[in-house]
Amino acid sequence: MHVFKFGGASVKDAQGVRNVAGIIRQQDPKQLLVVISAMGETTNALEQLTWAYLRQQPDVHSLWQDIRAKHEQVINELSGSNPAIFEPVFELFVDIEATLSQEPDAYSPPDRIYDQLVSFGELLSTRIVNAYLNQSGLDSYWVDARRLIRTDDSYREGKVDWDQTCEYITDTLAELLDTSVVITQGFVGSTDEGNTTTLGRDGSDYTAAIFAYCLDAESVTIWKDVPGVLNADPRWFDETVKIDQLTYQDAIELAYYGATVIHPKTIKPLQNKEIPLYVRSFLKPEEPGTVIGNFEKRLPIPSFIFKMNQTLISLHPKDFSFIAEENLSKIFGQFAEYGIKINLMQNTAISFSVVVDNQPERLARLLPQLQEDFRISYNEGLELITIRHYDEKTIDRVLVNKKLLVEQKSRYTVQLVVKDLG
Known about the structure:
By secondary structure, the protein is of the alpha/beta class.
C-alpha cells in the first residue's frame, strides 16, 4: 500500500481540492491512504483564534467568522447537486462554536486548549476533501486520526506510543484499504483519556510516516508546491537546484537543521523499515521529484537552510561559576519543561548561548525561571543560516549585508547567526 500526504498549500482553495482529487484518481484506489493538512493558512488563523480565546479578547467572534467564511467559500465552489454531502463540515462548525461560547477551563493547561482548537483545521479540510471525492464518484472513507494515533499528554508536541498506535491502525485500516481510499488527518492524535493532542507544527509529514511504518507501506509521497527537495528555500535564495536523490542520513540532517520541506521526525520511522520517501510537485504531478532512501551517494552540492525570527539568548551564572555539567543540566531541563527547542548552542567557561525560535508565550514563562540563577542578555529578529557541505565561498555568499554574531563549524556543517544590515 502507499501513503500520500498533501500539505495546506495543495488544498488552500476549491481548485486545489479538485487538483488533489485528480492526482488521487490517477492512482489505484485500493491500498491508498491520504493524509491531509489544514487548508492554506488555517493553522495560523486558528492559533490566533486560540490565543484570543484564552485571553477572552473581543475579536474572538470575528476571527472565527473569517475562518468559517473561507471554508464555506470552498464548499460553495465544490458543492454540486448534493450539497448535503458536506453536512459533516457544518457539524464541526457547531462543535467549534460551542467551545468558543464557553469561557476557557481555568483548570486546563493552555497547550491542551490549543490542541483542542487548532486540530479543527485538519478535521475541516479532510471532511471537505472526503465529501468532494465521494461526490465525484470516487469511493473514499474518512477516518479520525485521533482514534488511531495514541500519544502521551505532551500537548503541542505529543510523543507517540508506537505499540498502541500500530495496533489501532492495523486493526482499523487493514481491511478498509482493500475497498476504499482512506482520508485522514495529519498533525493530530489523542491521549488514553481521549484528549486531543498535536504532534508539533507541520507534523503532517510525521503522521504520514507513522501510518506508513505501521502498515508496512511500499512508499510515502509528500506532495509540495516545489519540484522536489531543493538545495535552498526559493523564498530566500534566487538560484536553487533540485536534488534527485537523498540518503536518509542527509535528509535527517537537513530536516534537523530546519529544512521546511520535511518534518524532522519523518525520516526515522521510514528508515527503520527502508520505506522510500518521494517529494513531488502537486503542480506538476507527472514529474518524478526527489526520492529519499537507502542510497550510498551523499549530498552532491551545498544545501542552505534559513530560519528566520530567531532569538539569541546568552546566560551568565550570577556567582561566576563555570558552565559545567550541573549548570547545563539545569538549563536543558528548563528548556525542555517549557517545550523550547534549541537550534544552536555554544558555551565558554562562564557563559552559555542558545538560538531558539521566537516563541513569546513560552519564552515569557522560561526567562523568569532562568533569571533566578543567571544574568540574561538576548538579541531578537535574527536569522540562523545552516550550510551543509559548505566552503568559504558559500559562507561569503550568505553574509552579504549581514552582521555575523555567532559562527559554529563542524566537518560538514556551518551555522551562522546573523543580523540583517539592510
